[in-house]
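Researcher: Go.
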Amino acid sequence: MRGMDLSVWLTNFRELHERARRRLHTSDERALYLEAREQLARSLLAAQGHNLQPGASARRSFRVPKGMHVDVSFRAGALRSRTLDISSGGFSCLMSGAPGEGTLSGFVLWMPGQDEAPVVGRARIVAATPPSEQGNQRVSFTFEDVSDEDRERMEMLIFDLALGYIVA
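Model: Structure:
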């Protein structure tokens, strides 16, 4: 996409996104919107230097920086943290003494906005950095058990945030 084309495309996408937020799409518009959302996510992933795994959804892989309260519970107990970034496929946060990769946890992700219900489900640790001098490590989770409705709410938030970062 060239400069002017990108600006026009983004304007059209913003309009589609706003209509999706208000649930005003026809089924044809909805299909067009989901396709455009995937295209934008692919472009932003490429701009971030990330390669998409074959068959993976860019929408589920694309992460945006966002600090949100998250309560994570393991067998040993519960921890409260703040997300570093989120996608509709998972999140990462700082933790002290996290269990190893592959560990399943319950989580409650507190969505921004007073009227927003939290996203509740199960997530699996897929990566963790070595602990810092303070003992914190970045821990990445993938969602194992999240409703389609909650995943859609997260995608709307993620694209709201992404559009807020894009000046065009």
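Model: The chain has two domains: 3-59, 64-147.
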